[in-house]
C-alpha cells in the first residue's frame, strides 16, 4: 500500500518524460489508450487536461479513472520488480532414475556457485536442467522436487512469466523476430524494466562481443548471428538484464565463445549457474559436479585441489585444441602435434 502512495505521488508530480525514463513500459500504457501524443514535458494531469474528453470516453474513462489505471499499472510493475524474496539458494530433492530407483540425494546450491552436470549422452543431463527450469514439484518423469530458499513453490510462483526465476540458454537458440541487435536489447531492457537502460544495453553489447569469437555490430540482425554469437549475446543478456537469479546452460562448449569468461561474468552478477557439459575444462571449473547415470543423480563431487591444479594443464591442452580448430577454420594445414606440444 505504501508503494501505491509513492507511485501516486510520482504520477502527480513528475512529467510524463520523467516517468517514461524510469518506467519505459508506461509508453505502452499510453499507446493502448491512443494517448501516445500527450505532451511529455507536462505532468499526467496537465497533459490530460489538454485532450478532448471524447478521446477518453471512447475507453469508458475520464481523467480521474485513467490516472488510477496508470497508478495500478505502475504498482503492478514495481511490485513484480521489488517484492520477490531474493533467491539465496536452490535445492534439488532427488526423485528416481529411469529404472524407477530412488536417487536419495538432496543438494543445495547458493548464489555465486557454479555446478556442472556431467554424464554420458542420453543419461539425463538436460532432463535435470528441465526439472530446474520448470521448478518441478514431483510432477515430471523424474519426480524431483525443487525448493527455492528451502521452500516448495506454489503454481503461481512457478509459472509467473513476468518474474521468471530461471533463465535457460539451450543448445539451439533460434531468434524468431527480425530485429537488429540494438532493437533486440532495447526490447529486453524495456520489458525487464532496466534502470539506466542505455548503459545496460551498451554493457551487454560490449560484453557479448568480448565473449564471441567473431565480432558483430548493433545493426546486425539477430537472425544473422552465428550460434556462438547468439549464445554470447544471451549470456550477456542473462548477466546484465535478466532478473532471473538461476541460469541454466545446456552445452556451451561447441558455441565457440570464451567459456571461462562467460561463467565468471554470470557468477559476478550473483547468479546460481548450472551447466550441462561434456567439456573437462568447464566441468572442472565448477565448484561441484553432478554425475548423471541412467537418468538419476549418481554422485555429487566437489572439485578437488588436485583437479584445480590439473586445470592449468587442461587449459594448455584446450588452447592447443583451439589453435587447431582455428587453423582448420582458416584453411591452414595442421602440423604434427610434436611441434606444438
Ligand atoms: N529419471 C528419468 N526418468 C525418466 N526419463 C528420464 C529420466 N532422466 C532422463 N530421462 C529421459 O531420457 C532421455 C534422455 O535424457 P537427456 O536428453 O536429458 O540426456 P542428456 O544427458 O542431456 O543427453 P545429451 O548429452 O545427448 O544431450 C530424455 O527423453 C529424458 O526425458
TrEMBL record:
SMART domains (UniProt xref): AAA
Where does the source fall among the domains of life? Bacteria
Matches recorded under InterPro entries: AAA+_ATPase, ABC_transporter-like_ATP-bd, ABC_transporter-like_CS, P-loop_NTPase, ScdA-like_N_sf
List the GO molecular function terms: ATP binding
Taking every annotated instance into account, which residue ranges of this chain make up the domain ABC transporter? 85-320
Q: Which UniProt keywords apply?
A: ATP-binding, Nucleotide-binding, Transport
In Pfam terms, one family for this protein is ABC_tran
Q: Which family does it belong to?
A: Belongs to the ABC transporter superfamily.
PANTHER family in UniProt: OSMOPROTECTANT IMPORT ATP-BINDING PROTEIN OSMV (PTHR43117)
What is the protein name for this chain?
Vitamin B12 import ATP-binding protein BtuD
